[in-house]
Amino acid sequence: MLSNIEWKLLDKLIETLTPIESATQFLGGQKYCTLSLIFSSIQILKYDYTPDPNISVNSDKNNEKNNEENLHLKIENEFAEYSLLSSDNDINSIINSIKKGIYDALFEYWNIPPNSTLLASLLDPRSKTMYGWSNELQELAKLLLNTEYEKYKDNDIPIQIYPLSQSRSQSFSSRIFGSQIHSSTDNELTQYLDNFRTPQASFDTDIFKWWIDNREKFPTLFKVARYKYQIFFAKN
């Protein structure tokens, strides 16, 4: 029969693994396009599993590297080493060691995500603010999207806008200052990334419908999104 402190350890273990369960249920409940949500989910898990620096961690001196094969062994070893639990400190040390093992594994496999994952996340209007990303990854994602944008965009020609009618003073001033020209640098990519002009979509948005509804506003980016999600856009 388990002792009270062992039951307490099991309760703490369930609590510790709850974020993984939540992430699994969230990703599994999506209708499609899970790839665009993976990296953001990993970032949240990294935050949840950051070890407490004030609690000691039992390190595995024989093998400091955590990977898919030995992570479960690390957890088993923690339980074996603390088979005689006597205090909450023992429980906290075990839990912190488990959190560190998960945390290290997340960094080992997802420290630098694949380019396809970054692009999918940025092309998802629900996550285009790249909330919680490092500045370096944000800039990398923007660079990747800009590269794809340049591949697909049509030749941009500066558009001159003339007033329908001009007074003499307006006509004369235009000869001094020139006609108003919209620079091609203010393109659909900058408009898409600008969260004032294009607010981030709500979490329950159908992103494929969003792109179809906005394809006239973002014709080039629609081509990029359609290529990246070509299976889902095949019938549109």
From TrEMBL:
Residues 188-226 form the HAT C-terminal dimerisation domain. InterPro entries: HATC_C_dom, Vacuolar_transposase_reg. One of its GO terms (molecular function) is protein dimerization activity. GO terms for cellular component: nucleus. One of its GO terms (biological process) is regulation of transcription by RNA polymerase II. This is HAT C-terminal dimerisation domain-containing protein. It comes from the Eukaryota.
